Each structure stands twice: as structure tokens, then as C-alpha cells.
Amino acid sequence: xxxxxxxxxxxxxxxxxxxxxxxxxxxxxxxxxxxxxxxxxxxxxxxxxxxxxxxxxxxxxxxxxxxxxxxxxxxxxxxxxxxxxxxxxxxxxxxxxxxxxxxxxxxxxxxxxxxxxxxxxxxxxxxxxxxxxxxxxxxxxxxxxxxxxxxxxxxxxxxxxxxxxxxxxxxxxxxxxxxxxxxxxxxxxxxxxxxxxxxxxxxxxxxxxxxxxxxxxxxxxxxxxxxxxxxxxxxxxxxxxxxxxxxxxxxxxxxxxxxxxxxxxxxxxxxxxxxxxxxxxxxxxxxxxxxxxxxxxxxxxxxxxxxxxxxxxxxxxxxxxxxxxxxxxxxxxxxxxxxxxxxxxxxx
Amino acid sequence: xxxxxxxxxxxxxxxxxxxxxxxxxxxxxxxxxxxxxxxxxxxxxxxxxxxxxxxxxxxxxxxxxxxxxxxxxxxxxxxxxxxxxxxxxxxxxxxxxxxxxxxxxxxxxxxxxxxxxxxxxxxxxxxxxxxxxxxxxxxxxxxxxxxxxxxxxxxxxxxxxxxxxxxxxxxxxxxxxxxxxxxxxxxxxxxxxxxxxxxxxxxxxxxxxxxxxxxxxxxxxxxxxxxxxxxxxxxxxxxxxxxxxxxxxxxxxxxxxxxxxxxxxxxxxxxxxxxxxxxxxxxxxxxxxxxxxxxxxxxxxxxxxxxxxxxxxxxxxxxxxxxxxxxxxxxxxxxxxxxxxxxxxxxxxxxxxxxxxxxxxxxxxxxxxxxxxxxxxxxxxxxxxxxxxxxxxxxxxxxxx
Lengths: 348, 401
Fold this sequence. Notes:
The structure holds 2 protein chains of 2 kinds. By secondary structure, chain A is mainly α. Chain A has helices spanning 2-27, 30-55, 63-80, 88-109, 112-130, 136-139, 165-189, 191-201, 203-208, 213-239, 249-262, 269-287, 292-306, 310-322, 326-329, 335-340; strands at residues 145-146, 157-158, 161-162, 241-242. Chain B has helices at 2-25, 53-68, 88-101, 113-125, 156-170, 184-197, 200-204, 219-227, 239-251, 267-271, 300-312, 321-340, 346-353, and strands at residues 27-28, 36-43, 76-83, 106-108, 130-131, 176-181, 205-211, 232-236, 257-260, 283-286, 343-344, 357-358, 369-370, 382-387, 392-399.
């Protein structure tokens, strides 16, 4: 009975959310739509890193590199080979998967902080490698590649607002984001997810239970890189420009900030993290031009102090309070409890 | 009744005519009103290039001064300057914010080659002035393809033409060795130099070497350049490498006539680290008055600037050339807006920007701001200065168009 009413509310909630998401871009200006697009793109990238860092416990400071590779693969395919923007995603995903998988091998020997440094080296190297003369013909060197923004394939008007290039991209990116989150969901809520978390929490116990550590760890690295690569490819389409300066090592740190702010090992937390990394720098800049990063730092410290388990952890705590104690939270399987309970329900 | 109707019609018609005249006198695009002109700007207030943020702040301070003195033709300037951290992806976002949300009349002084490249196409599609971009690349003066974009400072090719001109005048039979950074910036300089030498380039330039920005040193290149027997050295390097080159040339006892690109003529970042005595006799190009040079300190121009700094930017660094740069650029913007009068359309802004012939106080004597419909390079003249071990001494003669 209780289960049924819960389900009904879930469906209603989902429908309302869907309608809201579809109407939203027509209520705001194109520039805001562009920002929403960036939030969704960052959310995919943060989700990718969260699979690796949050679920599997491997720290990467180099995911900006995969984002860059994804973006450049997409940009070169569009610019040189005339591939349509939507067809670039599989290429970016596969190439980033391979690079990430290879990166996963040193990760097997390096743990914790050492792995963080090794991946950081990748983040530092990528902007310079993109300037390399031998590949300048494709990458455009320091100047980067200027792309055309895809126009909507048909005309449509909602609430008197036309379906502009940005709004069209919004729906395209929304679809891709939904698919990527669904993939992550399917992947992480079952056996694989439990195996990843087991590796994170107790690798020896995990291998005693039959989890093949090397295979899982390097595959996780590959999948995580592929997610971030897809985000990069989308960003090349949305921003319509790539250059080495767009992908400095700072980007990698930004993604890690997104993961921690959103909540480690939380799939919906990636969205909160993406909102943070998209909007907080803008707010900081509006508060002070002299020291925007100091303001950013204050935000970060405050957030970590008030929500030590990230936004997702905070929501989870509030939810269980509302349900009348921690026991109630794990009882029903509603959307909200799924939000609060990281996949596998084994967040320590 | 009929007559009344006629009279009404005449009255109505003349009313529309009158108001039509009034509209013709005052023309506005989005971002301009009777009271206000909105200008946008993008600066790296954060990130690796944040030292340039002083340019945005000094521009803002200058507009404050203009507003305090009554504005331009009675209109206040609202200067909206935002941070992109020198990240082109953020520049795109910020440009869209300025154009679509803040609805500025024009953007002025957006800084950096990669950030401006990222929005070049967008600004021209939107027919939004991308005025006085603060970068030295030569590609900003292309009114045929990009009529909404205009440069500001001397471009790289223009500057190396000045060096070539100086060389041909002082040492027409020189043997030239060139070292350049292997990227667009280095190639831009090289092209201007070779173009200006023309046919003579083949005989005069006897050695060209490159380095990558990732190289740790350029010692081996310097030894090889000396070995070529050249008596003139054109040094197209960024500050770190420029200092290395000056030091190494002194170490190996190579004393050519040494031209140093203006990218690296900073006293603090290059000449002092290289060893001030090692650089004696080096030539470089200049267009702004160096605020640290005591020779200007008694002039009215310097005093005006210092008074402006004291009143509107009390925390600003008087030794920072970026503050002179921002002040001068803001004066250029004000001149364009003055020329626009009451016709504040984007089209007219570009038209007036392409119709400048002025001198600005903190430009070196003889250096002017001059544009035309097919010349989108505002500052093209420079003076040659020579390093005497303590400071750059201007040679007085102005080169360039």
C-alpha cells in the first residue's frame, strides 16, 4: 500500500520534472540556456570522475585531460572530416576509454596520493601536447579550432520563443545527459557497483570474494575517462571553440571540486557539483574583482563545513530527519531515498 | 467637420514628422539611452594572466573619472567588466553574458589572443563591436572579413617592420640571425620582418632557429647563432627566454646589434634578471611612456595620469605599465564615443573607430592613434629605445606609418 502510493508520487514527480525541464529553456534568455548546457556537460564529467574517485576510491587529478581529448576528437572530426556533431560522441567515448584504460595500468601499481600525482602529470602535459607542431595541422596549434554551432533542424516556437541553436543544443545535451546518467545508474547499482565499492573500502576482502582487482580498476578508469570524454565532446559543440588554454590543469581540479561538493559516490550529486563549478566562480567575480579565488575559497570552506558529505549527503540527512529518523530512510525505495542512498547502499 | 478632420490629420502628420526628426537626431542601439552607455569588457582577473587585470581596473577608474566630470555628451558610462580567467571557454560564456544578458552597446579592450579568438566569429555574427582588443596578433585588423573587430596596440608584424626599417637605415649590409618561438606569435613577428626586408631578406638573413615554449633553455641555439657569423640578432622570444638569450650572448662573448621584441622589454621581468650590464646596447620598440622613467615626471601628461591614479585608483601601482595601458585605451574609447555624438548605434561606433586621428597624452611623442575604413590598426608607430644598463633611452625618431 505504502509502496504503491510512493510509486504514484514518483511518477507524478518525474512527469512534472520532465515538463519543467522541457519548458525551462523557453523561459530564459539564450545565454542562460547556454549556462544550463554547461551545467549538464559538467555534470557528465563530474559523474565520470565520481565513478572513479567516489565509487572506486582512485583519486584522479587528470580528468581535464580526458575532457580535452574528447573535445579535440570531436572538434577535429567536425572541422576536418565534416562529421555531424551528434556522431562525434562515440568516437570521443571510445578514444577516451582506450586512453583511460591505458592510464589505468600505472594506476594498478600506484595508490592514493601517488596516483593523484601521476594523473596530475597528464593534466599538465595535455595543453602543451596540444600545441605540438607535428599535429598542428589538425589541432590548429595555439589558436585552436573555431567551430560552427549546430542550428536546430526544424523550426518551432514555444511560448513565443523560437527554438534557437542554444535551445536545440539544450535538448540534445539533455538527452545525452539522461542516457549517460542511466548508464551510470545501471552500471553502479548492481554487481559492478558493489564490486567497485568493495575495492574502494577493502581491496583484500574484495579480491578474496573473487573480484578481479586489476581488471576492475583499469576498466573503471576507462569508463570514467569515456564519460568525461563525452562531456568534452559536448563542450566542443556547445562552446564552438577549442584551444589548449581551455583545458589547463586547473580544469581537472575543478572537476574534483565538483565531485566532493556534490557528494562522493552519489550519482545525482554530480548535478549539484556541476552547478557549483559553473556558477560559483561567476558569483565570486561579482563580489570581488581583486580576489575572486579567495571568495571562491571561502564558499568552498563554508560548504565543506556545513555539508561535510557534499550536497547529496546533506539532502540525505534532511530527508531521513523528515522521515522520522535514519531507520525510515532506508525503508522505502522512492526517488528521494535513491538520491540519498548511494548506489549499493554501502556508503561508509 | 471635414476641415476639422483635415486639420487633425495635418497636425498628426507634422507631429510624426517632428518626432521623426527627433529620432533621426538621436539614434540608439541596445545598450545606449539618453542617460547611459553600457560597455562590456572581459579580463583575466583570476588565473595565470591575472597581472593584466590592472588594465580592466584602470579602464574602469578612468570611466569613473569621466562620469564624475559629467559623462560623454551628458551620458554616463556603465562599464561592466567580467572575469574569464584567461580560459577561452569562459570567455565565450562571458561574451554571451555581456551581449545577451547585460545587453551592452559594445565590448572594449577584451584581453588576450586565445580569448579573443574564441569570440571572434560570435561577435561578428552578432554585429557587436569587439573594439580595441588588447592583443598584438596581426589578425585583428581584417575589416573585410571581420568588420566588427579592431585591434589597438602595435601588432607583431608592424613592430618587426619597424625593426627592419631601422636595420636598413643603420646597417644595410648586415648579416642577420633570428631566433623565434615556434608558434603563431613567433611566426607573426618573423613574417613582418621578412616581408619588410623584401628581396634583401634572402641575402641578409643567414640563420633562423626556433625553440619550443616547453624547452628548458635556448643555450645551444645561441651558440649556433653565434657560430653563423651574424652581426645582427633579432630576438623574438618571450620574457623567460629573452633573459636567457641576453645572458648567454654575454657569456659566449657574442656582441651583435641586438633587436629585442617589445613582448620582452620589461625591465623587471627581463633586463634585470638577465643582468643589466649584459644588455647594454640592446634595441627595442616602445609606444607608451614608461611611468617609471623620471624624464616624464615633470610633464603635464604624467602629472595628469599620476593625479588620476591618486584620486581614482589609490591602491594602483604607479610602476605598473598596465595602468598606463588601461588609461590610454580608455581615452581612445572615450574619443570614439565623443565622435559618435547622439548616434549611438553599433554601426556608427565602428565607423567612428575607423575614423580616428588623435594623440593621447601617455603615448610617446610622435606616436598617434590613426585608423581608416581599411586600416584597423590604431597604433602603428613606435620609437626605438636603447638599453643603457639602467633604463631604456628613446632615440627620438618615430618609426612606422
